Amino acid sequence: MAADAIEPLGITTAEEEAYRHIQRALRMGRYRAGDRLIPEEIATEIGMSRMPVREAFRQLAAEGLVVIRPNRGCIVAGLTLDEIYETFEIRSVLEGLAVRLAMPHIDVEVLEELERQLDRMERASQTGSSDWVVRHQAFHLQICQLSNRPKLVRQIASLHVVIEPYLRIWFDYVDKPASARAEHEILIEVLRSGDAGKAEIVMRDHIVETAPLLANFASPGRR
Amino acid sequence: MAADAIEPLGITTAEEEAYRHIQRALRMGRYRAGDRLIPEEIATEIGMSRMPVREAFRQLAAEGLVVIRPNRGCIVAGLTLDEIYETFEIRSVLEGLAVRLAMPHIDVEVLEELERQLDRMERASQTGSSDWVVRHQAFHLQICQLSNRPKLVRQIASLHVVIEPYLRIWFDYVDKPASARAEHEILIEVLRSGDAGKAEIVMRDHIVETAPLLANFASPGRR
DNA sequence: GACTGGATAAGTGGATACACAGATACGCTT
DNA sequence: AAGCGTATCTGTGTATCCACTTATCCAGTC
Question: pLDDT (tens digit, 9 = 90+) per residue, B184-210?
Fold first, then answer.
């Protein structure tokens, strides 16, 4: 159960292709917030009819990536500054919970694996924002997975997808891989300490402190 | 924006009707977990074609109320015991966050309104489980709304819907309106104190303590 | 010259029809 | 007699079609 946290629930081949195609485009920042997504356009692009695309829209709307207004089409969802803060607030308590619950499953091998993840993250930071964002997400989700709470991990993963474009933009403007590494080292540190309550607090702080940083570079478009 | 927290995002008349119809049936416990939802059946029942029903399924799947397996239809989602606990864990941190953020907006009128809500809840407990569950949800959401965080409130509301059938069953077996009132009085108490940090902790405890109670009565069917 | 009203065009939402996948039951073979 | 394979049927998934809503543009009026 819950094989991959980011996977949508029930989807068939054609619809899945549409979903993946659009989600990738959105995550890569190909569209800007407020852009209209025209079903026919995307349908012909992938080589199918409008219908699977419509269903994909619905899936994406449920995840908060697009907004469907009745009879007025599908537009790319943008987060206001307040919504970015809100998303980070939610992330902070959810990932805080996850790390607290993960603590019993932390052992030496896990810590070593997380260190390797950080190495990969640092190396990726040189190749570009895309790679770094992916590695950064992988690091956070790796910890969350250890909580052994599928629904929790799924919700967290969903939030990561929503803020991904903003993280990307932030990274493109100010690249600070050095301090990013240090901040995540702190997380491994507290995991090593074995104090679940402390780990929760550290994770919370780690996340909410990130929000103001990229708030300055907010909005790849306006809603 | 964000007029009603429980409202799905982009939905048209026909689809909305299908959505409401199915959700109400699910919340009332009309179906049991694992039951198949046949699009054609529901469509004719409301007097429309299968399509809006399918879109409604997708919406419900995103909320975790049903599960859609490719080419194998839509079945009512059931929560395992672990998943019930997990849902309450998630609720506890989210509503904890909400009450912490709500604190600055607490004043005398709000407290009085919450007291009235408790009165209504107690009165409803005599008329039946349905009324009590609705009032109980309203009380919790009332507090959450004060946080002024639309996305947070939406997520919490969604979790309430998922656990609603289980709360209903629990209430039908052991009705304990008296202690329920006392437990919620504590919440108003801490809101009156003005201590945001303490309120968060109290809310968390209040919620996680509920989980084991209704775990004994878990599962209106098996997935 | 600007604003409002109507008409036309474009595009979304819904229904119906069709193709394909999965489940079940029956028959054949071992 | 039991197990496997096949055939049929039910039901999902996709496409095309139609109706209705909305947006845009132009003309008329103030």
Answer: 999 999 999 999 999 999 999 999 998
